[in-house]
Amino acid sequence: MTNTTLSTKALFKLIFTPLFLCILILPGIGFAGSSVKASVTINVGDPGGTALAVINEAEKLNGYFTLHADDHVSINVPVKHVTGFLSFVEKKGIVTGKKYDAEDFSTQLILKKTTLNAREKMLEQYIKVLEGAGNKKIVTVETEVVKLAEKIEDIKGHIRFLEHCTAYAKIDVFFSYHDRTMPTAKKESSFAWLNTMNLQDMIWDFRNE
Question: In a 3-state reduction of DSSP, which class is residue 108?
Answer without folding.
Answer: helix
